[in-house]
Each structure stands twice: as C-alpha cells, then as structure tokens.
Specification:
two-stranded antiparallel sheet, 23% helix, alpha+beta
C-alpha cells in the first residue's frame, strides 16, 4: 500500500470538506486488502517489475488422485500464495502453494469449493469435461485499503452527517474513494478481484457477525459479459486453519 501519512489524509479530506475528527474516525474502520488486476491496470510506476500472483479461468493444476470438485463449477481464480506481498493482509492465508476457487459467477452457485494445493506437489492440468472453462487472464497484486461500509461511524461522523445531510454523505464517499486511490497508487479499476479487507458489496454486506471477507470477484473480471459480484466469507479461524468447507459463497446482481 502506498504510504499515506496524516498530513496527506487531512489535505485530501479538506478538498472534500471532511473535518479532521471525522477523518480519524473513518481511518479507524479500515482494513488492508489486496487487489488483483491485469498488468495494464497496475499503477504505472510498478509495472516494470511486477510479479504475477494469480489467474482467472483456465484449467486447474491438480495432484494425482485429486479430481475436479463434485459440483463441477468452473475454476474462476487461482492464487499463487508465495507471490502475494508479505504482511499485506490481516487474514492468514497459506504461505505457499496455490488456492483454487471453483464457483459460478454467471448464476448463483449451487456448490462451490476452495482447494489448497501445497507447494512442491506434482500436478497436471485436468480436463474440464462438462465444466465451463473461462479464458485465463494473468493478475498482479496491489496492496490497498478498504472501508467498513456497514459502520455508522463515531460521534464526530454522525454529527457531521446530521449537520450536512446528503451533502455530508457525498463528501464522505468522495473522500473514501480518494483515499482508496491513494493507497492503490493510482486510479483503481472498477472491475477487479480483491483478497481480504472489507467487502465492497452491492447489497447487504456478508462480512458481518464474525465473518470476514476472503475474496471478492467482479463477474466481469472472469467473463466480460457477466455482471455479478461474488463474495466469499468465513471466520478468521476457518481461513487461518485452511478449513474451507465452511466458507459462505454469495452472489449479488
């Protein structure tokens, strides 16, 4: 994440008419995340030495004896855990190996699965059979910052909104967008994949009541003609232990 010190935050807030005490409350409800984007969407200074860390679509590379998951949902995302920036998230992912996400992005998923393939295990690409195969697209990681969209803020924020009404909410939204772009190091693409952080959901956020976001995929990040938001959540403990059977998969349209 691009370093954002307090003077820069306050300068950005002033441009949007957001008072300093409100800024401090807003920044207290942020979480780090990783955006996975195509090379042309990377901030320009980081493009030359960028290292890929994920891929949408393609065929899964599986060990002998491990088959395509029973539901036969498409492979939508593969993540090379060792290529992710160290310390970029506040959830615990495997240090190495690959995470393979199988789910539907075009229709609400009836079944979904997440597999961790440990590093060093021999694998071969498995044929799809009747499963759909999306065009593979290489993705690169960019640290970012996400806001808790479900919070009603602290006393300064509530007082600001009471005094300013709709204009106050517009100012807060514009400030959060500006800070997100600062953390990204440029204009964030609208279609992207996100690991960790708070969800940027279109409807009720699923990362509440002890559940945290593991991954969020815009349908168009996988297929240009699919307009969905796909969110995968679980408890911190499940994610850290690699107990992925209890994850919740939600699709919003």
């Amino acid at each position: 994440m691009t370093s954002i010190d307090e003077p820069l935050l306050l300068e950005t807030a002033a441009k949007h008419g957001v008072p300093g005490p409100v800024v401090r409350e807003l920044m207290a409800r942020t979480r780090p995340c990783l955006y996975l984007v195509q090379h042309g969407e990377l901030p320009e200074p980081s493009r030359e030495h960028a290292r890929p860390a994920a891929r949408t679509g393609g065929l899964p590379a599986l060990p002998d004896g491990v088959n395509w998951p029973d539901g036969h949902e498409p492979l939508v995302l593969s993540v090379d855990c060792a290529a992710l920036p160290l310390g970029a998230l506040d959830i615990e992912l495997p240090a190495d190996g690959h995470l393979l996400f199988f789910t539907e992005v075009e229709y609400p998923p009836e079944q979904s699965a997440l597999l961790h393939i440990p590093a060093g295990v021999p694998t071969t690409e498995h044929p799809a059979g009747d499963s759909r195969v999306y065009e593979p697209r290489t993705l690169y990681p960019v640290p970012g910052l996400s806001f808790d969209g479900e919070s009603d803020g602290g006393p300064h924020t509530r007082a600001f909104l009471d005094a300013e009404g709709d204009g106050g909410q517009e100012a807060l939204d514009a400030f959060e967008e500006a800070v997100g772009d600062l953390a990204f190091g440029g204009r964030r693409p609208g279609v992207r994949v996100q690991l960790g952080g708070f969800s940027d959901s279109w409807d009720m956020a699923p990362d509440t009541d002890g559940l945290v976001l593991l991954a969020q995929l815009a349908g168009q990040a996988v297929d240009h003609d699919v307009f969905t938001m796909n969110l995968i959540v679980g408890t911190r403990e499940e994610i850290a232990a690699g107990e992925y059977d209890g994850l919740v998969y939600e699709q919003q349209c």
